[in-house]
Each structure stands twice: as C-alpha cells, then as structure tokens.
Fold this protein.
Amino acid sequence: MRRKSLLAGALALAMAATGIGLNLQSANAATTITIWHNLGTTQNAEAVKALTSAYTKANPSVTFNLVDQPGDNYFALLQSAAISKKGPDLALMWTGLFALQYKSYLQNLKGKVSDAALAREGSLSWSSPNFNAKNGPYVMPLDRQFYIGFYNKAAFKKAGVATVPATWNELYAACGKLKSAGYTPLVYGNGGQSLGALYYPWYDASYIAIGQSSVSGLRDLYSGKNQWDSKANLDSYGKYAALNSKGCTNTDVLTKTDNVEDFIGGKAAMIIDGTWDTQKFTDAMKTNVAAFVPPFSDKPIKGVVEFAGQGLAMTNYSKNQAAASKFLEFMTTDKAAKILDGVGLIPNITGSKTTNPVNQQMLDFAAKKSFVRYPMLDNVLQGDVVDAGNKIIPAILGGKTKVADGLKQMAQVWKALPAAKRGASYK
C-alpha cells in the first residue's frame, strides 16, 4: 500500500558497473516524473523517497513530484485521471489480479524496460497477463514480501513449548500452555488496518487453501472447482474458528488495533503478519523473535506464502515514459537493493540478501528445495471474492459469523461473478 549535480558521477559509474547505465541526461533536458501513491508514512513510502532521491543525485536533470493521495479513494482517483489523461507518470500499484484489472490505462513494461532489468526483478509473473512474465509485467515491484508467523522465543520457553507448532492440534496444544503462562497465544487485530480493510485473517486463507491441496487449492478456488462451502472448507474453517473457541486468540479480533504492540511488548506469544512489520519486531525484540510457517493444516505445510509487494506502474498516457522507464530500471540495481534493505524491506531483486536476520530467515525458507513458494490468496482471486473475504473470514474467526453461513456467503459471491471471471485459468 507505497519517486542535483553531476558531482555524483562516481555513484553513476558504480551503478553502471551493475550493467545498467542510468543514462545521465543533459542539464538542459529537465524532466519531472510525477508519482502517485497511498503509502502515507510506511516503510514503502520511505523506500520511494530514498530511491527517487538517489536517482536524482545521479541524474540531476530528473526530479520527482511525489503525491500522497488519500488511501480510501486512491484507485477511483487513478481511474478519473486516466479518463482526463492528466494523472501521474508512475503510480503505486498492487500486484496480482488486482493490478491486471486496471491494465487498460497502464503501460505493459515489456519493451519499455530492458530485458536485462526485468530479468533481475523477481516475481514479475504476478503482474503479467495469465501470470506469465513472458507476456510482460504491468508493475515493477518495490519489495518481496512474506506472510508468515512470528513467535516470541522467551514466551515459548517460559510456557514449556519446546517446538514450534506445525499442525492444528499442535497449535491448540501450544495455545493451552501459553495461555496458562499468562500470554495471549495468538494475537489478531483488524481495527487499525488501512483502507478500512480487514486484511490479516483473510490472508490466513492462503495457508488454509495450501494446507488442503497445495497450490492447486488456490487455482481451484479461482475456477470454482473447490467451492467455498465445500466439505473440505467447512472442515478447515471449522478448525480455524476453533482458534477463538479454544482460547488461542484475543476476544476482540474485529476491533483490536494494537495487536503488533501486544506482540512487541511481550503480551502475546505469536502473531501472523507480513514482512512489512519485521523491522518493528527486530528493533524491539532483537534476537527474541523468529519466523514460522502458520500451522493451518492437519499435516505440516512445506511451503511459504511469498509474493511481490507493492510496486510502481507506468500510465499509458504518460508524456515522460522514456525517463520513467530508466527510473524503473534503476529499481533493479544493487544500489536500489541496498536502499530497500536499509528501510527494512526485502529487495525484490533476484539473488539479493537482507541484513535483517528474520527477513533472511524467510529467504532461507523460500530457498529450501523441500519448500514450495505460494502466492498470496488475494493476488490470484477475483476482486469481488477478495472484498468479500476481507470481511467474512475475520468475522468467522471473531465468532461473529458461523462457519457454514460465512462460507455460503463466499460461495454466493463467486457464483455471482460474470462468466469471464470464472474460467479455468487466471486472466
């Protein structure tokens, strides 16, 4: 949810050594690239500011106009700008099917950004038609994200939880010990999420689908082969709802806003979260925090949810496409990777490392030969289904909606989709 002098020649030469020339422009060819985003003050906002600042330092004739648009109507503003053709050159955009639904006013980057630069950027499939990078991406991701579990090592030791839970039953057992030791076993909170969305329990649905039937579980939810109110889903979400009834979670799942603070402050032993918060955890907890795969399955899940995070898309009406393309190429350099790592993000650049030990732990998970890398559920499901899941799945976890009723609602949303959005493959 996240763009003055030739004295910087040394930096430019260093970047050229990576194989990407920054194409320093004549001082007479001044260009201002306008970037719209809805990042507020997040790490991604810091990253965009740092990237654009570094680029201008090496390319004094190129400056950036960073416009922080209101989050709640950000995409409506983008659509209005596309009609008038008086909008940004680059716009913050999510990846997956979400981005592809706006491709009518975005520029396919194949042929605009060099093949060499695109080859250095990971996870481009999730912003390409039919999820095939050969078709060309519409978004250049800023970072590589993981959605995963985090746990407090000291809390586990105090409660006598010797091993990290890997199945539903192991999770329930660990919760009992942690609660007896005075901790909220697994803390959730929705009230503080941006855009008014109830994101995090919905994200859990990725692991629930994977736990059922590997990656095909995701595609089958898209195509309808696995209906939301299937027997398998009723069983899985019944076990998920039991996290509440068995006392694994806080009772105020739907309203709590300080779940991250509870985890950092030692009140909660576990949290399911994304790498956008890793830096907060390690800054406060140092080496007392580690990652684990959410155990939302009857058998250990041999995989991790990994996806391209937010990125920048080029508008097809931009009058500065050549200059904007060069900046997007810069985003794939080693210099850019260091900038992204410096603000606590995992660079989305192939082969890059991270100085944050917990983020590196997740990269190590993803690199395991026995592990499969899975996309985030809302990257690969229809927008209407995602919007419904954002509200219904948290309500199931919070005990506000019965499992059968909630899944019936999800099934109805899918059945109401137009035929073009219910095919056997992603579009």
The radius of gyration is 22 Å.
